[in-house]
Amino acid sequence: MKPFATAEIKSILLVQLGPFGDVLLNTSYLNVLRRKFPHSRIDFLVSKPYDSVLYRHPALDHIVSFPKKKGLAYVGERIRTFYRVWKNHYDLIIDQQCGTGSGQIVMFSHAKYRLGFENSKFAIFYNMVASRGPKRYSASTKFDVLAPLGIVEEPYELYYYVMPESREYIQTWLNENKLEDRSFVVFSPGSPAERKVWKLENFARLADMIIENHNLKIVILWAPDELKDAERVISLMHHSAVMAPKTNLNQGAALLEHSRLLICNDGGINHISVATKTPSLAMFGPTSPLHWCPGKVFPIHDSLSNPQAYTPEDKGFGISVEEAYIKANNLLDL
Fold first, then answer.
1. What's the CA gap between 331 and 127, in Å, rounded?
2. How remote is the C-alpha of 302 from its chain's centroid?
3. Rg for the chain (alpha carbons), in Å?
4. Which pLDDT tens digits describe the chain residue by residue (334 residues)?
5. CATH 3.40.50.2000 is right for the domain spanning 6-149
6. Which pTM does this prediction carry?
7. Residue ranges per domain, the chain?
8. What distance, in Å, lies between the first and last C-alpha atoms of the chain?
9. Spatial CB neighbours of 242, under 8 Å, sequence gap ≥ 6
10. Where are the alpha helices (DSSP H) in 150-198?
């Protein structure tokens, strides 16, 4: 490993090109890194639109972003990105993604110190390497690559800046629908990955049980490609639910700030709930809650998973509505 001195590091580039959830998870260590290098320039390289996750982070000096392209335009954009990184001559580049795209950037970076995991595909181009730590919540594992810098995991929060205009948009909608702060539970039954979607009938039954046993309303949150699932859940319910307005990610976060609880599948919205400090219950099918559920770090978050019972054909994930209600009830009592 190349000798390392903190004082000689004047500029740092972090690399995590996307997606939204993974970029957000990187906010776990940024304040710690800033304390370690209080006088260094710290930049973050990320592709658009994922750069929005890092907007106004106090530990960062610059967000270096580039648009996603296809075909020959993609090749051209990659070359421009390589040049932008090379031109800045960073003293230290930290590859948090450790994939092909990020590894190529490290390879052409001309950085004095190049840090990544020892078992990565492009590890040959690193002159500082780290070992992966034990499996745990993925925001915590982001600390592992920083070990050669003398940084270890410590208590942290996730950061996501909710814009004033997003808060105003949601507050107007809440007023129009006569929804008071913490008077409702947000359900997010959709997912970009169909295999992660818990049975919609189960979401509907769980929503009915909460309405019947608590003085709370249900708001169904949806992304553009999840509208049909949201409408399906409402159609299956015996009681009335409120369809959330069309929102982007930032507006969705603004809605979560007012919610008593989020109930969702495994996905980025669950990590957003950590940043907004909204209790959450996530249903896990093919993915592991050990890596993706924040509950081990943040007690107001919980999950359900039954990997022994899971099959691709069983959209119930081996998780009963009754089990989910017990978990939800516990979180509502916090």
1. 46
2. 16
3. 21
4. 566 778 899 999 999 999 999 999 999 999 999 999 999 999 999 999 999 999 999 999 999 999 887 877 777 888 899 999 999 999 999 999 999 999 999 999 999 999 999 999 889 999 999 999 999 999 999 999 999 999 999 999 999 999 999 999 999 999 999 999 999 999 999 998 999 999 999 999 999 999 999 999 999 999 989 999 999 999 999 999 999 999 999 999 999 999 999 999 999 999 999 999 999 999 999 999 999 999 999 999 999 999 988 888 889 999 999 999 999 999 998 7
5. yes
6. 0.93
7. 6-149, 164-332
8. 48
9. 177, 179, 184, 217, 218, 219, 220
10. 164-176
Burial of 305 from C-beta contacts in 10 A (0-12 / 13-18 / 19+): buried
**Residue at 203: amino acid letter:** F
Instruction: Give the number of other CB atoms < 10 A from CB of residue 164.
Output: 9
CATH topology of domain 164-332: Rossmann fold (3.40.50)
